[in-house]
Specification:
Helix content: 40-55%
Oligomer: single chain
Order of helices and strands: HEHHE
Strand content: 5-15%
Shape: extended
Largest sheet: 2 strands, antiparallel
Number of strands: 2
Number of helices: 3
Distance between the termini: 28 Å
């Protein structure tokens, strides 16, 4: 398990750090609730259909800055 974590996340030669910003606090709350709630159906919907969580004022809902 620790080897997998090293290979996928911790290895500084292969990991990629990105800054993610969310301007819409209401949308951020909805996404956090979907991901952290005990009800796994909301989390599953977020993973399978992320476009349903997009902000109407935005093209992609979440801004990723590399």
């Amino acid at each position: 398990m620790s080897e997998q974590l090293w290979e996928t996340t911790m290895n500084p030669e292969t990991r990629r750090l990105i800054q993610i910003t969310m301007d819409d606090a209401e949308m951020a709350e909805e996404i956090i609730t979907a991901c952290m709630d005990e009800d796994s159906s909301a989390r599953r919907e977020f993973v399978l259909y992320p476009e349903r969580f997009e902000n109407d004022n935005d093209n992609d809902g979440v801004d990723v800055v590399a």
